[in-house]
Amino acid sequence: MKVERVQAVEVPGLGNKIKEAREADKRSLTQICGLVGMSTANWYRIEQEKNESVPEETLRKIEAVLGVDFGVNFPSL
Description:
By secondary structure, the chain is mostly helical. Helix content is 49%, strand content 0%. The protein contains four helices and no strands.
């Protein structure tokens, strides 16, 4: 049996912050996406905030690859 907890937190402007961090990185988008494990099309959807949400695991991979912390934290329940 599994127990699942789903939490969401609103992060205004996160897509733009990700874009700024990517543009500050010397690597190409293709290289960055390869390290994160996602397509460039999905990356652009995240930057443009066309996705309704981003899994925390994906956000943490983006932070690790770009060497940034977007300050996204979840409140304790």
